[in-house]
């Protein structure tokens, strides 16, 4: 059985809109989890439905801590999105992952601490696996789209998610790189990736490298004006990659072979008669497939 693909793109710093959508409309989507970062741009591209949400809002309103991650993922799910592609500005811990390159992230270390990280809780407890937090099928498609766009792509990498908003100290930067084996650093992919898994959405993450964080002896400390300069070039490449996805993914979607779209199948522990009706109502979009 197939369903209809709807590609959701969450645009990070420097990527606040995408061009070329047919019937493009900015839509306000209400969510029981709060107000999303901004309206969502919907339309079709080469016959495939698309939805674009600027993570920080147009005009960069939300800090990494205040991005309404639950409202964003819930709103995309509510619209019918099946596959989420996150595009983010990141620092690099690897010489060979240079500014201007893109990394298809496949692992995360979550060091964020001031964010709501789950749709579930008292009255409906659920535990999903995030051992493999990104969808291999969607990630492979993003890699292919990037190569086709002529971008210097890297397949796989571990993303250190920090709270921010300050960049890392030199000691932290060296520890993440040398002891923890991280490849890139950013402030936003967690809890986003965990929430996408709870919402049974395939999730892939593209890290657009903007800087070498602070570890690199020849590059000194992170400078936001340098980041913005690199971002301007990266954003065009990011848009090019994204607009190649509809042709590669197609409008008909088979069930995810990695089970992302069935993540809640055996995850909910709370007995039906002990579930909180108010929380159940809020979970209508995210967990409706298994709860309703
Ligand atoms: C502009 S530098 C720091 C800022 O950029 C990244 O945002 P996003 O992941 O949404 O592209 C990083 O995580 C910080 O929020
Ligand atoms: N060095 C860095 N650390 C955290 N987030 C970033 N976003 C872009 N560069 C970054």
UniProtKB/TrEMBL annotation:
Tell me which GO cellular component terms the UniProt record holds: cytosol
Pfam families referenced in this protein's UniProt entry, alphabetically: PNP_UDP_1 (PF01048)
Gene Ontology biological-process annotations: L-methionine salvage from methylthioadenosine; purine ribonucleoside salvage
Q: Which reaction does it catalyse?
A: S-methyl-5'-thioadenosine + phosphate = 5-(methylsulfanyl)-alpha-D-ribose 1-phosphate + adenine
Q: In which pathway does it act?
A: Amino-acid biosynthesis; L-methionine biosynthesis via salvage pathway; S-methyl-5-thio-alpha-D-ribose 1-phosphate from S-methyl-5'-thioadenosine (phosphorylase route): step 1/1
**Binding-site list for phosphate:** 13, 55-56, 88-89, 188
Site (described: Important for substrate specificity): 168, 224
Q: Which InterPro entries match?
A: MTAP, Nucleoside_phosphorylase_d, Nucleoside_phosphorylase_sf
What residue stretches are annotated with the Nucleoside phosphorylase domain? 7-243
**Source superkingdom:** Bacteria
Keywords on record:
Glycosyltransferase, Purine salvage, Transferase
Which amino acids does the record list as binding substrate? 187, 211-213
NCBIfam families xrefs: MTAP (TIGR01694), PRK08931.1 (NF006492)
The family this protein is said to belong to: Belongs to the PNP/MTAP phosphorylase family. MTAP subfamily.
Q: What is the protein's name according to its record?
A: S-methyl-5'-thioadenosine phosphorylase
Biological source species? Halocynthiibacter styelae
């Amino acid at each position: 059985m197939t369903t209809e693909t709807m590609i959701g793109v969450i645009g990070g710093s420097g990527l606040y809109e995408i061009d070329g959508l047919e019937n493009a409309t900015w839509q306000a989507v209400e969510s029981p989890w709060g107000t999303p970062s901004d309206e969502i741009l919907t339309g079709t591209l080469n016959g495939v439905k698309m939805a674009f949400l600027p993570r920080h809002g147009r005009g960069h309103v939300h800090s990494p801590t205040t991005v309404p991650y639950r409202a964003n993922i819930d709103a995309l799910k509510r619209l019918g999105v099946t596959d989420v592609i996150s595009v983010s500005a990141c620092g690099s811990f690897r010489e060979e992952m240079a500014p201007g390159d893109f990394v298809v992230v496949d692992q995360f270390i979550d060091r964020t601490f001031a964010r709501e990280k789950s749709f579930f809780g008292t009255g409906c407890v659920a535990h999903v696996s995030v051992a493999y937090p990104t969808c291999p099928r969607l990630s492979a498609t993003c890699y292919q789209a990037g190569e086709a766009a002529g971008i210097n792509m890297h397949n796989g990498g571990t993303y250190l998610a920090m709270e921010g908003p300050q960049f890392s100290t030199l000691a932290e930067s060296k520890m993440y790189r040398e002891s923890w084996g991280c490849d890139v650093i950013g402030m936003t992919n967690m809890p986003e990736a965990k929430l996408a898994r709870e919402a049974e959405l395939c999730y892939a993450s593209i890290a657009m490298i903007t800087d070498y964080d602070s570890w690199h002896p020849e590059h000194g400390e992170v400078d936001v004006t340098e980041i913005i300069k690199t971002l301007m070039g990266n954003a065009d490449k990011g848009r090019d990659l994204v607009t190649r996805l509809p042709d590669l993914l197609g409008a008909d979607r088979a069930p995810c072979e990695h089970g992302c779209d069935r993540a809640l199948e055996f995850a909910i522990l709370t007995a039906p008669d002990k579930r909180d009706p108010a929380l159940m109502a809020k979970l209508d979009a995210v967990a409706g497939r298994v709860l309703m």
